[in-house]
Specification:
Order of helices and strands: HHEHEHEEHEHHHEE
Strand content: 15-25%
Shape: globular
Structural class: alpha/beta
Number of strands: 7
Helix content: 40-55%
């Protein structure tokens, strides 16, 4: 997920060719990217017994769809993203995997997904929330997800987090940059990516994340994945 596919209006277009390049690059930029998605599939399978309809918020190029759909044939999906270019890549991927008949795509933000797209037994929101400022926008998205889920339903999200004013943030940021060099990413590309993070990512601490989740109607989150400034969390819609 990128800034072009997030935000309140989703007006920016992420062209299909750029979306495919993004798909190749992100695996080298985010540590454990594949593991995050396979762990998400395992956690949801355990929570839903492999049955039901899952809401994918900000599905991007369909990485979680590729991890989830083949894992459990009893799942169907509603996948939303405001970027037509990225969603087109996700649709191509679904066709190639032979799972397109189980996926309904919505080229819009979550609040524009029709109510009859559900009911849902679970939801994911991977690498989206950190693009929204903590001015009510993060909370609004979390509340919108909660409104789509029944009590007890699992919600898995991944986010860049930390308090930018702390020594821990500076340490992890520097280590992440150094790690990208070991992955063979040129310095110019790393600098471009870091500038993107500094410009477009709205960091909050785990304490603030916990507060937002509680206010939105979720149980306390369990962190099941971590890599430098990235974290993956499981919580449930509160009864």
């Amino acid at each position: 997920m990128t800034a072009e596919t997030s935000g309140a209006d989703g007006a920016q277009t992420f062209h299909a060719s750029r979306a495919k390049r993004y798909d190749d690059t992100i695996r080298r930029v985010i540590p454990g990217y594949e593991a995050l998605h396979s762990m998400t599939a395992a956690l949801l399978a355990q929570a839903t017994a492999g049955q039901g309809r899952i809401l994918l918020v900000g599905t991007g190029t369909g990485a979680e769809l590729a991890a989830l759909a083949p894992a459990q044939t009893g799942w169907s999906f509603a996948a939303c993203d405001p970027s037509a270019g990225m969603l087109a890549v996700a649709e191509e991927r679904a066709q190639a995997l032979g799972v397109a008949e189980r996926v309904q795509f919505f080229p819009c933000t979550l609040d524009a997904v029709p109510p009859d797209a559900g009911p849902f037994v679970a939801a994911t929101c991977l690498l989206v929330l950190h693009f929204l400022p903590d001015d009510g926008s993060k909370l609004a998205l979390l509340r919108s997800v909660a409104d789509r889920l029944p009590p007890g339903a699992p919600f898995i999200f991944a986010d860049m987090y930390e308090d930018p004013q702390t020594p821990r943030f500076a340490h992890l940021r520097a280590a992440w940059v150094a790690w990208q060099r070991t992955m063979g990413i040129p310095d110019a590309e790393i600098a471009k990516g870091v500038a993107h993070v500094d410009r477009d990512i709205h960091f909050v601490s785990e304490t603030r994340l916990a507060s937002l989740l509680d206010e939105a109607g979720f149980t306390p989150a369990e962190r099941f994945f971590g890599g430098f400034l990235f974290g993956g969390y499981l919580c449930h819609r509160r009864g």
